[in-house]
Amino acid sequence: MIRFLHSSDLHLGKPFGRFPEDVRGRLKQARHDVIGRLAQAARNGGASVVLLAGDTFDAETPAPSVVRQALNEIARANDLKWVIMPGNHDSLAASELWRTILQDKPNNVTLALTPEPLKISTGVFVLSTPCTTRNPGRDLTEDMDQPTSEGALRIGLGHGGITDFSGGEATLSEDGGAAIIPPDRAERSGLDYLALGDWHGQIEVGKRTWFSGSPERDSFKHQKQASANLVSLNGPRALPEVATPTTGQIDWLSLTLDLMPEDDCVGQLNQNLPELTKRRDTIAKIAATGRIGLQDKTKLQQAIAQIEPDFLSLEQHLTHLRMTHDTADLDAIDTAGALRSAGQSLAERSQDPVLSAEEQEIAENALSMLFSFAAENS
After folding, report:
1. Is 337 helix (H, G, I), strand (E, B) or coil?
2. How confident is the model at residue 49 (pLDDT cuts 50, 70, 90)?
3. pTM of the prediction?
4. Which of 139, 190, 221, 248 is the most core-located residue (most Cβ within 10 A)?
């Protein structure tokens, strides 16, 4: 019997270049800190080993400080054995990186740099298939067919896209590369559990095959909470028992409001927001579709602007939210004169079927700005 923690895709050193400096700093720190959270999840679950299935580092040439500080953090968790395998972002082609890690690693780290069976406990072997390059071009997991001693527990450790984990057509990998690992690899190679990396969202491919997902989210793509897999193997060919302890610190909230003219748009927004105590650790993207009145759209924009400082980062996407116009909206701009005339003209252009969708949107946005200006100066 063995209990271990399966994780992958830490992407230490990821730059997060599209964010301002203070947000980038928080995101980088959260990725470093996840090492300690993985260690604690392993301890809490009674695991003795942590398996990292590739992409521990975001690039083949991470900054020396990123590598050294990661190894220092792992060294602190010296009550656990850590097995680290190269993925496609930190492949074996990064020979200098792995030479440095081999030289500086603490005693509780084992590097899985070859496909040779790796004994991690009495009667327990890891069959790893480290990525040789960014795009190996073949199914490396074929090497998991290698024999081990009779009655041993066999744990596969791989990295890459799987040909089908949803019952449909062939599925691409996280980075858009070809998916070439067969979904029945565990059965083909006699594995008790196949620990995969590459896909950043946690997925159960089959009873013996899992993507752990990244333990710290890095985009809006995968909406599940970031976690790891706590795996118990109770004997050869017994089905694994898998728990999924939460490990993420930063949440990524993607919220889309589908609005109609009679809706309380601000009320819908507030109902779907996280608690105040969680917002500092949340990156939010708020979008809206449908059609509402000009005054309601202005109220919604003002409400989003009011809550923006609560969040680590917040971006709004209201370009697909169309506006309805009535006399009351235009009266709120002005009852007569140049402003009223301008508002009337923009309202007509925003609904003119002769104009392109882009031209209609420009008119709509200009009308919204005019309404906001009038409201501020009323």
Report:
1. helix
2. very high
3. 0.86
4. 248
